[in-house]
Amino acid sequence: MPIFLQGGVELHEAKRSEDGGGVPKTTAWPLALALACLIIYASLYPFSEWRNQGISPLRFLASPLPKYWTGFDVGINLMGYAPLGFLLAVSALGNRRVAWAVSVAVVSAGLLSLAMETLQNYLPSRIPSNVDLALNTLGAWLGACCALALERSGLIERWSRWRARWFSADARSVLVLLLLWPLALLFPASVPMGLGQVFERLELALADALADTPFLEWMPVREVELQPLVPLVELVCVALGMLIPCLLGYCVIRALWQRAVFAASALAVGLGASALSAALSYGPQHAWAWLDVPVQAGIGLAVVLGALLLAVPRRAAAALALLSLAIHLSLLNQAPADPYFAQTLQIWEQGRFIQFYGLVQWLGWLWPYAALASMLARLSSQEPKALAVEK
What 3-state DSSP class applies to 255? Predict the structure, then answer.
């Protein structure tokens, strides 16, 4: 190799090493894993009344075709697995072997569908079907073909180049969290933007589980009941709830102007998702009823803090996100849910709104703790130095 090319390659490799890695890891694989968990959750819900019906678990494979079916049944089985096939194929396309990528997507999705249909034999509320298995596999094949078409058109390559310009190579986990954040906000919260308020529910659930056992006496007893948040604390919770996604983005976004665009977009998406949650919970006429004075002040404070922290180094942004999450969760879990909010939760849990078997509820509870774990892992990883923001 000519000396000037060798020097250029070494310089390029050094820059890539300094930036925390080489080729960015695709987010398709963790998204496919999350989608597989969603399919398992939807296929086996409500996870109760398991029983052995005394028949072969694979008997449904030889069953006659059902006499009655609807276009909705066909569509939901196709569309439920098409995104999974797409994401699995994109994950496998990294080695540029097209046949391998499509085969991995179809076989993996087919095996998952087979496992779900087999387990449904043990749930009295579910009926396994060979037609569902066939439609699920066909949906995965259609999704994989869509990924193949996008790859051949160059759109996936252009997306990869755009992502490399905007995000660091280790952005995969943060991007998945940011994609899930608006969905988590659809679960109604007692404090706007207040995800992760689980302490009171965990305490009650543990007390119910330990009832009529001697271990109930081991539970610590609070001397003072949980008190509602005062307006100032509510303001801080709202501000931190909106600032945390911005800080997550600052951990992986390269340039200052890109951070500004992202922060503005994140704030807009957060407001829109909260308004949609209120509309689903209380009616469209109450979509913006939650914007009282403390909430408005908290949003304004989040905007100011997000602007002031635009130039913070990426590792410092992760530390600030970790600190903000800790304070946010601590303040939220020191307050009870008011009676009106408890009634709203009961309505959601009864399935009167679009909440997909309570999955959005779990996202609202667990998202901040997943973000907490992600920031801890990021800060504990070995890096050559804290990366500055590009101008």
Answer: strand
Q: Report CA-CA distances (Å) from 278 to 161, 190, 342, 365.
A: 38, 11, 14, 17
Torsion of Cα atoms, 232 then 237 then 239 then 242, to 10°: -160
Question: Which positions ≥6 away from 230 have C-beta within 8 Å?
Answer: none
CA distances for 371 relative to 173, 177, 178, 301, angstroms: 9, 7, 9, 22
Helix (H, G, I), strand (E, B) or coil at 253: strand
Query: What's the Cα-to-Cα distance from 215 to each of 202, 204, 207, rounded to whole Å?
Result: 16, 14, 9
What is the helix (H) or strand (E) element at residue 98, kind and residue range? helix 98-119
Domain extents for the chain?
20-166, 172-380
Span 126-177, pLDDT tens digits: 888 888 889 999 999 999 999 888 888 888 888 888 888 889 888 888 998 9
Q: Give the tens place of pLDDT for each residue, 24-33.
A: 567 788 888 8
Chain segment 1-54, per-residue pLDDT in tens: 433 333 333 333 333 433 444 445 677 888 888 888 888 888 887 777 788 877
Cα separation of 314 and 286, whole Å? 38
Which amino acid is residue 237, in one-letter code?
C
* Cβ(55)–Cβ(121) below 8 Å: yes
